Amino acid sequence: MAFVVIYDANALFGNTQRDLLIRLAQSGLVQAKWTHAILDEVQRNLAANLPDIAPAKLERLRALMIDAVPDCIVEEYEPIIEGLKLPDPDDRHVLAAAIKANAQMIVTSNLRDFPAETLATWGVEAKSPDDFVLDQIDFDGRVVWACVQQIADSRTQPPQTVYDVLDALERAGLVEAVTALRS
Predict the structure, then answer these.
(1) What is the rounded average pLDDT of the residues 12-23?
(2) How far is CA 75 from each of CA 15, 20, 78, 99, 111, rounded to the nearest angstrom?
(3) Cys-Cys link to 100, which of 46, 77, 131, 159 (CB 3.0-4.6 A)?
(4) Maximum distance among all alpha carbons in the chain?
(5) What is the distance, to the nearest Å, from the Cα of residue 41 to the centroid of all Cα atoms in its chain?
(6) Is 87 left (phi over 0), alpha (psi -120 to 50) or beta?
């Protein structure tokens, strides 16, 4: 069984980073999971930051994400939420999903909202997307490189190289992971 991770909404926000995280799951390195509430948050944030994007396009993105990763949706985690304490109560649903899915990790850009001592109670750790991808590179860098190559190969309008994808990932905040991939 693959390592189980919950991708928080903020980790799924940027296009290239989201693409890489999903491809890592498709590669079998990890079993990625999220909830409909997490996808709702992704859609709300994309709509707010990109007001010209059509709602149908956001719905299509959601469907593609669900189809891309088998067994990705965590359900029936809601009863756990009330018993959890986090600095931001609005993040309790993410930890509840991690507990329900027996996830070992939450990939999030909001590390301060997921204190290590609180998560340790549940056997869960929070990592930034950069640290998470860096761990995957340490585990099997060839697979991560192949995922980056697949992204470049899929981008034809306009065409992109692996180095264009790495630049986009670096701009998204995956600085250490991109440094490792470039070396």
Answers:
(1) 96
(2) 25, 24, 8, 11, 24
(3) 77
(4) 49
(5) 13
(6) alpha
Which residue's entry shows tokens 């640290």? 131
Two tokens, residue 49: 């930051």
Query: For 42-99, what is each residue's pLDDT tens digit?
Result: 999 999 999 999 999 999 999 999 999 999 999 999 999 999 999 999 999 999 999 9
Whether this prediction's pTM lies above 0.85 is answered by yes
Length of the chain equals 183
DSSP output for the chain: -PEEEEEPGGGGSSHHHHHHHHHHHHHTSEEEEB-HHHHHHHHHHHHHH-TTS-HHHHHHHHHHHHHHSTT-B--S-HHHHTT---SSGGGHHHHHHHHHTT-SEEE-S-GGGS-HHHHHTTT-EEE-HHHHHHHHHHHHHHHHHHHHHHHHHH-BTTB--HHHHHHHHHHTT-HHHHHHHH-
Q: How far apart, in whole angstroms, are the C-alpha atoms of residue 37 and residue 159?
A: 34
